[in-house]
User: What shape does this take?
Amino acid sequence: MIKIIVLIPLILSLLWFGYLKLQGYSIAQGKQGFAYILVLSLVIAAFYSLMLFVTH
Assistant: This one.
């Protein structure tokens, strides 16, 4: 469970970083994308945590 919560933002961030580099953008130009990834990952983590609490 913890692996999924940790791997989701890492994989999404690596994909976003790769996309930025392929398109010629800097990290500073893509920082809003990293913020979106962080928020999405927190929502997913909260959902998984809630489901774990509800089903146990």
Notes: The chain has a mean pLDDT of 92. Residues 31-55 form the longest helix (25 residues). Helices lie at 2-23, 31-55.
